[in-house]
Amino acid sequence: MSVDLATVKRVAALSRIRVSDERAEELVPELNTILGFVEQLQEVDVEGVEPMTSVVDMDMRKRADVVTDGEMAEAVTANAPGSDDNFFAVPKVVE
Amino acid sequence: MTDLTALTIADLRDGYAAKSFSAREVTDAYLGAIEAKNERLNAYIVTTAEQAREMAGASDKAIAAGTARPLEGVPLGIKDLYATKGVHTQACSHILDGFKPPYESTVTQNLWDDGAVMLGKLNMDEFAMGSSNETSYYGAVVNPVSETEDLVPGGSSGGSAAAVAANMCAAATASDTGGSIRQPAALTGTVGIKPTYGRCSRWGMVAFASSLDQAGPITRTVRDAAIMLRSMASSDAKDTTCVDMPVPDYEAAVGKSIKGMKIGIPREYRMDGMSDEIDALWKEGAERLRDAGAEIVDISLPHTKYALPAYYIVAPAEASSNLARYDGVRYGLRVDGENITDMYERTRAAGFGDEVQRRIMIGTYVLSAGFYDAYYTRAQKVRTLIKQDFERAYADGIDCILTPATPSAAFPIGDVSKQEDPVAMYLNDVFTVTVNMAGLPGIAVPAGVDAKGLPLGLQLIGKPFGEEDLFRVGAVL
């Protein structure tokens, strides 16, 4: 399988990455080189093989359903590029 | 006077016990070495001199009081993807611009609890995506093995490997998703171990591909790697994939006889076009182990060639999901836009480098509606087959597997063939990536030099949680 220019633009939009028309043109062969490389997996017989879900044989560890931290809004928002009174600030999303 | 920066961790431990020098003296010697060498090598992106001297002072007090811990006064460099409280943590990406975590990763906390001293944060490929350290927002790292030519140190832990090789830290933390500890270790003549998946906590490590990422050290000797891993590894309630198993005394395995151990030589690792030098090195390594009493057995791992293509589906798929969090809202870079979607798109375009963008898009594509089964589910099935290959070999009595670590020695910075063709760069990890796909432990140890005198490494692959075997056999190589 390979991608064309329209697909590259669609994937860039799904990825939320702004890509110029010029860069999108370059990405077509770049992504196709990678997709061409992974194409060889089609020759493997995977009939009846379970897809891997965990590399290590272990039971999912569960912890007690209790509050272990919190009450640190200041620390949580300390790195935000835009914040106001310990809230994250974003451009207007509701008209 | 002895060069304090040339000493191994084991030497430092002995020297502190004998009161031959102080942790403050050793730390100052390292800070001096960083100042002298970093301009050319670019291994450190941040040094934390004040913090280092403070920690060394505390170590000297502990040593004087007779309460020295396992890594007391050992100066370390920390890869930039480990969260260090209040200190630059960006995984060498522009998108985490200015990020200083209000928390400490479990692995680094374990190291500080054992008395280690932090010298600073080390350069790496952006989000650990790369095999040459050239995708870093902070520029390429120069491999110290050549004084005349600017060669890559490998990647993604290129800063870690270069700093250890150039005596700019006693050891370094690193991380390995497809070979990012072992490949740079091989290219710089250092030792690097990626432990079994789940042995070290991933909490506080910037995520790339969560089912493959694992922490590990880069050091100058196998013994030092054993000392470091014992401190780095732990169980951790904050990482549900971290195992609840006691950490063994890995150092006790170093120096043990390997008599009677069965070492597998997988025929599928003899790749087309592999250089004679690598082939000769591999044979010499096997002979060294045979001379030490091990039994050398030819084995087959039939799905080896499919590991790298499967990796380039699984890893980008997980990365596209993990990196969705960088949206300019909670931390790091924000580029304003006309509306919120515009802001996301502009922020991510400006914040991620080309290789990271490529991988996010590949991951998004293979996970998108209509392609998921053909790509992702198939890759995860191939991953099961790769793991079964190893399980069969170990069930037949093999203790560990010997392979080359990389297809070549260090190559020049800016190598055009690798810049233009992403797959040519990916092939650097052809021998290491199988180990991540199967969740196994692997160690790279220096084993010789090529015709130009550049270091070459061999890799040992162990059973799940068979790290002690790797230290035992690795010490013989």
List the helices and strands and how they pair.
The complex is a heterodimer of chains A (95) and B (477).
Chain A: H1 5-14, H2 21-38, H3 73-77, E1 83-84, E2 87-88
Antiparallel strand pairs in A: 1-2
Chain B: H1 9-17, H2 23-41, E1 44-47, H3 49-64, E2 75-79, H4 106-113, E3 117-122, H5 158-165, E4 171-176, H6 182-188, E5 191-194, E6 214-219, H7 222-232, E7 262-266, H8 276-291, E8 295-299, H9 307-322, H10 340-351, H11 354-367, H12 372-395, E9 400-404, H13 416-420, H14 422-426, H15 433-438, E10 442-449, E11 455-462, H16 467-474
Parallel strand pairs in B: 2-3, 2-4, 7-8, 7-9
Antiparallel strand pairs in B: 1-3, 4-6, 5-6, 5-10, 9-11, 10-11
Structure explained in plain terms:
By secondary structure, chain A is mainly alpha-helical. Chain A has a domain at 5-41: Histone, subunit A. In chain A, 35% of the residues lie in helices and 4% in strands. Chain A contains three helices and two strands; from the N terminus they run αααββ. Chain A has helices spanning 5-14, 21-38, 73-77; strands at 83-84, 87-88. In chain A, strands 1-2 form a two-stranded antiparallel sheet. In chain A, a hairpin with a 2-residue loop joins β1 (83-84) and β2 (87-88). The model of chain A has no long low-confidence stretch (mean pLDDT 93). The mean pLDDT of chain B is 97. In chain B, strands 1-3-2-4-6-5-10-11-9-7-8 form an eleven-stranded mixed beta sheet, sandwiched between helices. In chain B, α2 (23-41) packs antiparallel against α3 (49-64), α9 crosses α11 (354-367) and α9 packs across α12 (372-395). Chain B is globular, with a radius of gyration of 21 Å. Chain B has helices at 9-17, 23-41, 49-64, 106-113, 158-165, 182-188, 222-232, 276-291, 307-322, 340-351, 354-367, 372-395, 416-420, 422-426, 433-438, 467-474; strands spanning 44-47, 75-79, 117-122, 171-176, 191-194, 214-219, 262-266, 295-299, 400-404, 442-449, 455-462. Chain B is α/β, with parallel strands linked by helices. Helix content of chain B is 39%, strand content 13%. Chain B is built from 16 helices and eleven strands. Chain B has a domain at 4-253: Amidase signature (AS) enzymes (Alpha-Beta Complex). Classes of the chains: A mainly alpha (95), B alpha/beta (477).
